[in-house]
Amino acid sequence: MSSASPAPLLSEPSDELLGSASPGSPVPAKHTLDHSLSDRAGKRAKGRTNKSTWNEARGPYEERGEKARDTSYHEIWYCKHCDSTKKPNSITTNLSRARKHLRDFHGIRVIEHVERSDLKKQQHGTITDLFGRQEERQASRDLTEEKYLANAINIPAFEEALARLLAVRNIAHTFIEYPEFHAVILSCNYMARDVLLRSRRAVPKLLKKTFAQHKQGLVKKLHNSLSSMVHFTIDMWTSSEQKAAYQAIVVHFVDAETRGVAQALLSLREFKGSHNGKLQAKAFLEVVEEYDLRGKVGYFTMDNHDANDAMLDDIAKEIDGLDPVARRLRCSGHIMNLIVQAFLFRSKAKKIQEDEREGIDEAYERLCRLSEREEGGIITKAQATEEWREFSVLGKLHNLCIYSRSSTSIYNDFKAEIGRALPRDNDTRWNSWFRLIDVAIENRAKFMDWIQENHAKIEKDALDHNDWNELGDIHAFLQVFHQISVRQGRENTLDEVLSHMDFLHHHFTRTKNRAFSGPRFYARFHVAWLKFEKYYQLTEQAPVYVAGILLHPALRKSYLSEQWKRNPAWVSNAVKAVRKIWSTDYKSYQLPDEQQEKEQELDEFDRWRQKVYSTASEVKDEFDRFIYVSNLKASNGLVLMILRRAHKLGLDNKRPYSGGLNRPSERISPSSAVWLLTYSASLPCLRKQSESSQAQDGRLDGIEVACLPKW
Fold first, then answer.
1. What pLDDT sits at residue 73?
2. Molecular function terms in GO for this entry (predicted)?
3. 3-state secondary structure of 332
4. Which stretches of the chain score pLDDT less than 50?
5. Does a structural domain hold residue 639?
6. Which of 37, 68, 309, 628 makes a 20 to 30 Å CA pair with 549?
């Protein structure tokens, strides 16, 4: 075996290596070992141990000046297989190193028989040496035991577990070659040597095999899903290091087995060149055909990039009945980020709205370029500091943060005086700026003292009274956005998208009516309102946002009547649009074998009560009956509990669910529960794609590694 790759854990010395040297061999004939100094060793010479190791040794070559023992009377081991002394440990007094030399350079594993009294002397041996002794003891057991141990090995289960370990934990393929990994497996069952992969080159084949097996199961799950549609979240992510783009496609559906919402990563496609909307649409349609989903394509959640609009237009040309406008949901987290970025980095108001909107994008792009040049060292620190000052008080605060981290001594002095470090801002997440401002305001007194002590070095970035007032106004305005962001990071549901937008509208209106710290803050507020208004109006294009409100037991139609009471036409138009979706896509939808299950599971009383209820109800349409009843007054936690029970029991088809209430009008039928479940699945969850994409940064093993951890 080549010295470049490790030998198999249980390889045996070859006959060629163990045999005597041939006359033409470059290895000199074995000399008789010199034991002339053994008497002088006194008590040291109690009989040679490690005989197997010494069998691989030769005697010293006196013509080369070699000696049998060193000055401390330790016997010297000379490798009989080496024709020179240049290889490491070919000459040594340490027998552990000698065995390592034999294994690494000659592929020979030496297993020593150690007496019980000598065990403590061997505790510094390698892991593989210890395992070797364990295997030697086990090897003497009878064949019957080996037969049972061999039959106990579940090869498919082992391969499945190994593939999942490598994919989920993103472990390097060389892991399967580690002797320590082999030792762990074989110490549990020494007959498992045949299931171990010996080469990293076998890993891709294993991953493809496992992926194919799981893919078949996923295709079946999607085909048998309880929802009439499956929904998609699509995100395009760009690697800054590899300069490549990846399109992640996540599917959401109601699993027929668990009767709950499920999701799976279907694709992580690499785009090496252009990734415009047409190319992204082509990639998506290939996935649809691959998983046989053409008849079940539902809603799309994506960010606000224009390429996504073009992609949906092309998809709609291939999928019958798909409205690219009504089926397009927008990532609420991305909308929040755009609004706050406009608020933070556009401080010069213009008279013309269109110019103002262009100015917002221009200012943010300039910030991103500045951050990239600063991080990459493209510009000097002095140049970066000067350019950051053009962003007014936020630029000053950024420069102070950078200076506080400019050296170890300054960093430690700052932490000692303030009590903590300033968190770094970045150009992609607005909440990094909120945390920076939050820490600065919380430690204002200490921070001002530190600025005063270092005034000579940071004079141009020192914060004055007006700066602190502006930071206070910025912090107060962003506090609401931060609260919503925290909620979205937990269990965000479809109904919260529109309610969050309504709350932000209330926040803007309330802020507009109070005094500002200065004209710069008013300019920030103005451009943030323009950005918010744009996306607030876009929610009208997707009636499914209103569906989330109407199907929420604590909200329903009365929420719309209260929030939009100044515009009653909005309410009637929104309800009309949702009713159209209900009538077209869900009213006639039946779960698999629903009627048969009802007949089997409902007793005579349940069937009688259901008949009486359907006859006595004044409102015949199930959708209208649900949205027009009085709201369920409950805390958010209770509502969530009721919704979960509705999801579970409503889909079980055992009886119409009343949500723990006595009024028949509160009941949620299976078809309503499916509607609520499937749309709740279509939420902004771009975090999933981000996790998948980041796992691939620097090591792409293909779609198998990307998808398996998410299945």
1. 80
2. zinc ion binding
3. helix
4. 1-47, 116-124, 348-357, 359, 594-596, 598-599, 616, 633-674, 676-701
5. yes
6. 309
Among the listed residues 536, 557, 611, 551, the one whose alpha carbon sits nearest the alpha carbon of residue 581: 551
Residue 317 maps to a domain: no
Amino acid of residue 436: L
Q: State residue 709's pLDDT score.
A: 61
Residues 575 and 519 in one domain: no
* H or E segment and range at residue 505: helix 494-512
Do 23 and 52 share a structural domain? yes
Long-range contacts formed by 89-96: CB under 8 A, 24+ apart: 91/66, 95/50, 95/53, 96/124, 96/125, 96/126, 96/129
pLDDT for 658? 32
Nearest to 357 by CA among 535, 523, 527: 527
Instruction: Give the pLDDT confidence score for residue 532 in this predicted structure.
Output: 94
> How would you class 376 by CB atoms within 10 Å of its CB: exposed for 0-12, middle for 13-18, buried for 19 or more?
exposed
Domain count, the chain: 4
Tokens, residue 512: 């507009």
Distance CA 204, CA 166 (A): 11
Residue 290 · residue 324 · CB < 8 Å: no
CA–CA dist 465, 175 (Å, integer) = 59
And the tokens for 192?
């498992």
> Does residue 90 belong to any structural domain of this protein?
yes
Place of tokens 């009309």: 576
The H-assigned helical ranges of 515-635 are 519-538, 544-550, 556-563, 568-581, 594-601, 604-616, 622-627
Specify the pLDDT at position 685: 40
Q: Which residue range(s) make up the domain with 111?
A: 15-121
Q: Is residue 27 part of a domain?
A: yes
Q: Which helix (H) or strand (E) covers residue 310, if one does?
A: helix 306-318
Looking only at the bridges linking them, the beta strands covering 77-79 and 91-92 are antiparallel
